[in-house]
User: What shape does this take?
Amino acid sequence: VKVRMQLYGECASSALGSSSSSSSSSSNVKPPGMLRTGAMVLGKEGAFGLYKGLSASLLRQATFIGTKFGTYDVLKATMRKYNNGGDNVKEDESLPFYQFVACGIGAGAMGAVVGNPADLAMVRMQADGRLPEHLRRNYTNGLNAMFRVAKDEGVFALWRGSGPTVNRAMIVTASQMAVYDKSKNTILEVAPSLGNGLVTQTMASFAAGVVAALTSNPIDLAKSRLMSMKADEKTGKMPYAGTFDCLIKTVRSEGVGALYKGLVPTTARQVPLNVVRFVSV
Assistant: This one.
């Protein structure tokens, strides 16, 4: 649902076989909300349409999320040793907020580079249903998508859209991890009786999810559009040259508010995922 909302009304519709007039008219139509978008997918593609890209999403979780969490812990441990002149320190020793942010930026960048192929496969599989039948890629699963991309477009095509993916990952991870750690430490200072238990972790996770969704949505929208774009059939030209070109064209054709298309499902996804991840880890 998030990806479909982010792609709705994009000025690249001409590259998908639409005329310029239909492209301009579509940008003037109010985009559907999360529930209506979900209902449209359900009506046209059935219940399984809501689960397109699931295999690629699981691959993305294993590669991107696993890498960033592992890297974040390593960077925090390194930062603690640096702060203490190389001496061993307690694992739960707090860091200044800016150091949490720095660790999040580094971890996010590393995770994005590793997880970009699966991320690209996920976006393409989720966006496929909005294309005319003759332009659909019809990937069968995440591995099939990555194999066909490498075969048809070259191995480096698996990292198409890696710029906004890395940018988004740095923003998300920095806000997500830093806000979580800072919120948890603040809660423990204000209400030490709660302890570092389920309630504290849930509250900190909720705050981290909301902040991550708000800060990352514009870059996430650009990522979705760059990963799903197709070259114009006549000119062979791609609709977007890069992240900022995509954002500028989106604002020009759809308004500033378009940068936050998909914010509700993004938040609805980020908050419970954050709670599960942080409480589990």
In short: Confidence is low (pLDDT under 50) at residues 11-27. The CA atoms of residues 116 and 159 lie 6 Å apart. The chain is about 70% helix and 0% strand.
